[in-house]
């Protein structure tokens, strides 16, 4: 199997199919934080096929090619990278897509590939013994470590100096419904463990509200008696989720498509005609506990207190600090490209 201008074995050439696929998954991870599991199935089958092919070529050659260049790297890849991916997923360090990506890489790239392009040979630096999938992983970790530094420099240049400048940046409230990540603010100040914005979207869809609706009438929607009698499906919180949401947002009789009512926002529904002040306290502000009890799952680990704090902030603030997180498939793709072109960045830096 040959490609004009490139010299490589058949298995190594087929492995290059992973490059555009991982580029696409990295893009999807940035845009939606969702990657379909079906994308990994063909790559897994390809990886298994080229692993068998590579093994047959190495066995036919014999000697160090079979032992040092194939068996040892394959054992490291399958015996080390696979458990690392599984354990990090188990303990919550990786998402499902991240773990599956590393599992696929462990099968697809156990050994160091070799590509000749004219007088050049890639990767430029190859260790005497090593699993290529482990090199991709260490490169990805180094890229992931560098990203907060880049973010901090970006914030510093813009004059945004804050304790969370390494993990987030300010975002206007209008962009929150289309923004991925986690809120870094509570009414008490900055935090590293604020409301997950996917959980926010779940809550708003469940109530049939937009964030603009909530900001227009926060005193009304903070009252749990305004919760809709028949909530909408909350979806999974994805920005791209489509729902058939009612737009009443609560129990009041709606007189417009935006959920406005001819009843004073301070009035409490449910047969109580008493007018409460805007500062009234409730047992379950925003209906946060009712929402979390009604839906399936935990809304990404959200507690009623976290949801209430996030809604209190978003109901009033014009700009909020948000941590976009680092979609790990982006560093993985960068680690793959670095590995194919340069090799092991960590080993190169040390030696």
From TrEMBL:
Keywords: Cell membrane, Membrane, Transmembrane, Transmembrane helix. Pfam families: Arc_PepC_II (PF06847), Peptidase_A24 (PF01478). Residues 316-345 form the Preflagellin peptidase C-terminal domain. The chain crosses the membrane at residues 39-58, 70-89, 101-117, 129-153, 328-350. It is a multi-pass membrane protein. Its main location: membrane. Signal peptide: none annotated. This is Prepilin peptidase. The lineage of its organism: Archaea, Methanobacteriati, Methanobacteriota, Stenosarchaea group, Halobacteria.
């Amino acid at each position: 199997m040959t490609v004009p201008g490139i010299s490589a074995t058949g298995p190594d050439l087929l492995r290059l199919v992973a490059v555009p696929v991982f580029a696409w998954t990295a893009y999807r991870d940035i845009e939606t934080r969702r990657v379909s599991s079906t994308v990994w199935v063909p790559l897994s089958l390809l990886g298994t096929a080229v692993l068998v092919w590579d093994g047959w070529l190495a066995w036919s050659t014999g000697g160090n090619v079979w032992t040092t260049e194939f068996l040892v790297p394959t054992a490291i890849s399958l015996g080390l990278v696979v458990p690392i991916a599984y354990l990090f997923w188990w303990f919550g360090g990786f998402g499902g897509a991240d773990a599956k990506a590393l599992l696929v890489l462990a099968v697809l790239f156990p050994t160091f590939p070799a590509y000749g392009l004219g007088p050049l040979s890639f990767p430029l630096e190859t260790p005497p013994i090593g699993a290529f999938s482990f090199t991709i992983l260490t490169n990805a970790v180094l890229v992931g470590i560098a990203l907060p530094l880049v973010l901090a420099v970006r914030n510093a240049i813009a004059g945004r100096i804050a304790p969370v400048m390494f993990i987030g940046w300010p975002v206007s409230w209008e962009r929150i419904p289309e923004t991925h990540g986690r809120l870094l603010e509570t009414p008490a100040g900055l935090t590293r463990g604020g409301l997950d914005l996917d959980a926010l979207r779940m809550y708003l869809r469940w109530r049939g509200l937009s964030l603009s609706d909530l900001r227009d009438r926060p005193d009304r929607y903070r009252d749990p008696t305004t919760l809709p009698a028949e909530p909408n499906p909350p979806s999974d919180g994805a920005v791209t989720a489509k729902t058939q949401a009612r737009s009443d947002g609560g129990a009041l009789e709606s007189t417009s498509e935006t959920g406005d009512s001819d009843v004073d926002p301070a009035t409490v529904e449910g047969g109580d005609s008493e007018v409460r002040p805007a500062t009234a306290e409730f047992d379950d502000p925003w209906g946060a506990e009712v929402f979390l009890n009604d839906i399936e799952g935990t809304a990404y680990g959200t507690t009623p207190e976290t949801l209430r704090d996030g809604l209190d902030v978003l109901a009033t603030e014009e700009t909020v600090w948000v941590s976009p997180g680092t979609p790990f498939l982006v560093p993985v793709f960068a680690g793959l490209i670095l590995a194919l072109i340069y090799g092991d960045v960590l080993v190169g830096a040390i030696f």
